[in-house]
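Example record

One chain of 305 residues, shown exactly as stored in the release files.
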Amino acid sequence: MKLKRRQFLFFSSLSAIGLGFLGCVTRQAGKNTGIAASKAAVPSPTAKNNLLLRFVSVADTGTGDQGQYAVAKAMTNYHSKNLYDLVVLAGDNIYNNGEMEKINAVFERPYAPLLKQGVKFQAALGNHDIRTANGDPQLKYLNFNMKGRYYTFQRDNNVQFFVLDTNTNADWEKQLKWLEQELSASKAPWKIVSGHHPVYASGVYGSNPTFIKTFTPLFQKYGVQLYINGHEHHYERTRSINGTTYLICGGGAGTRPVGRSEWTEYSAEKLSFAAYEVYADRIEISGIGTDNRVFDKGIVQLKSA
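Predicted structure tokens for this chain:
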């Protein structure tokens, strides 16, 4: 029997209503009997609804070469599909000697699409950055948003960042006292520290025994879940070490070889950046290459002090 278009639409609507009613009955029956409803019957809400913050990190960027522009393009592509408004820029922002006259070629031009969209870069000083006037010109540069050689900033009440000056000429006594005071006073459930130099690394420079001795007890005591750095020109994510994950994102313009250590969860010699999605109970980390593909996925669990 042929149906006219109006009749067809009418009966189709009745069928959809009936299926919706049956679905409701099924879900209610599951609740009443204590039997879990199937995934098909009750689609779980998307995790994105609970997203607190999305940001990215990159380091060792400021060459102005093809590699930097390729990573910057991938960061822009990621932004077009996954909006974020924060980049943790973990040092060596201007090669080779921190010369501010290069700022257009090594920062403003490659990241122009992100800057135009209001993405905020929060920079740290790397060893190359302090070769000119000890990095002071970069401290004054507005688009690096540095409140000092070391500083803290917060996103809502959930995530607090602590940016360090990890260079050899840093005022370590004063800085470490400041860091402990800020960490102890923080009420943010998520505490993220960034600096240029690694604590744990499997690359050319390797781990820093002094930093392990200095930082790891503080991180454990005050519940720091994540440390982000560069200096090593590779990507490396550790397993949780006493509650802290260490993430190297130094493939922002060039790469060097990397191996593995007993605490390495993933390492790669790749031009890349890292993306982070922060939820109430976890941070999801993605390593993303210049082909726009995710090559590493990791999870950092919330850990209170």
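Notes: The chain has seven helices and 13 strands.
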